[in-house]
Amino acid sequence: MGKPTKVSNQIRRLRFEHGEMTQAELAQRIGVTRQTIIAIEQGRYSPSLEMAFQIANAFDVTLDEVFRYESAEGGTR
Amino acid sequence: MSNEEKGQWVYLVAFGVAYGAYFVITLGQLGQAAPADIDYVPTMLWSIGIGIALAIVGRIVVEIVSRVSGEIEGHDEGPVADVRDRDIGRFGEYVAGTVLGVGMVVPFVLTLAEFDYFWIANAMYLVFGVSAAVGAVVKVVAYRRGF
After folding, report:
1. What is the CA radius of gyration of chain B?
2. Which tens digit of pLDDT belongs to each residue from B89-145?
3. Residue to test with chain A: of B83, B138, B143, most A Cβ within 10 A
4. Which burial class, exposed, middle or buried, applies to B139 when counting CB atoms under 10 A from its CB (0-12, 13-18, 19+)?
C-alpha cells in the first residue's frame, strides 16, 4: 500500500510500552498531526532528523532504538 | 485523512466543476459559431471566480467539520498543518510549476502563430487549470502512497 521507505521504526511497540500511548498523544507531544504519526509508523513518511530526535525524546530512548536504516546490502544499521 | 489532503480533494472538485461547466458552455458553442464570435470572456471569468469561491468555501467547511467532529469524538487533531504537509505542499507546487512552465509553451506558440485570442486564452486557462490539478493530484498521491 504505502511507498516502502528504507527507514523502519519501532514507534508502535514503544507507544504500547509507554502506557499504550495513543498516536494523538505522541503527535501532541512533538507538535505534528496524528496523520503524520500514522504515516511514519506505516513507513509512508521519513521524518526529518529533528522530528526523529523529538520522537526518541518522547519515549526517552536513543534514536537508533526507534529508527533503523536498511542498507543497500539488506542489513540494518 | 488530514485537513490538507481534504483541502486538495476540495480543490480538485472545485476546479473540476468550474472548468467542466466552462468547457461544456463555451467550447460547446464551437460547432455553431466561429471562435472569434464566441463571447467566452464573461463565462471564463465567472468560471474562475466560482472555482476560487468553491475552493475557499469548501476548505472552510472542511476545517469546521474537522474541528467539530474532533471535539465530539474527544480527540485533538493537533496542529492544522505540520512539516509533512509543508514538504508535500512544496513537492506538489514544484511539479505544478514544472507543468505550468512546459505547458505555457502552447499559448506562446499559438500567439506567435497569430491564432485567435479565443484559442490563446483557452490554452492559457487550460494550462493553468491542468498544472494546478496535477499539483493537487501529486499531493493526494503523496499523502496516500508515501513521500
Report:
1. 18
2. 999 999 999 999 999 999 999 999 999 999 999 999 999 999 999 999 999 999 888
3. B83
4. buried
B 63-82 residues with CB < 8 A to A: 75-82
Predicted ipTM of the assembly: 0.74
CB A30 within 8 A of CB A52: no
Residues in CB range of B63: below 8 A, 6 or more apart: B3, B80
Answer for the pair B49, B17: CB distance below 8 angstroms, yes or no.
no
Q: Are A35 and B2 in contact (CB under 8 A)?
A: yes
Burial class (CB in 10 A: 0-12, 13-18, 19+), B30: exposed
Q: Look at B75 and A28 and tell me if their CB atoms are within 8 Å.
A: no
Predicted model pTM: 0.79
CA angle B125, B129, B133 (to 5 degrees): 175
d(CA B47, CA B42): 8
End-to-end CA distance of chain A, in Å?
25
One-letter amino acid at B82 equals D
Asked whether B5 and B140 are in contact (CB, 8 A), the reply is yes
CB B29 within 8 A of CB B43: no
Q: Which three cell numbers stand for residue B8?
A: 486538495
3-state class (DSSP) for residue A8:
strand
Say whether A2 and B146 touch across the interface (CB within 8 A).
yes
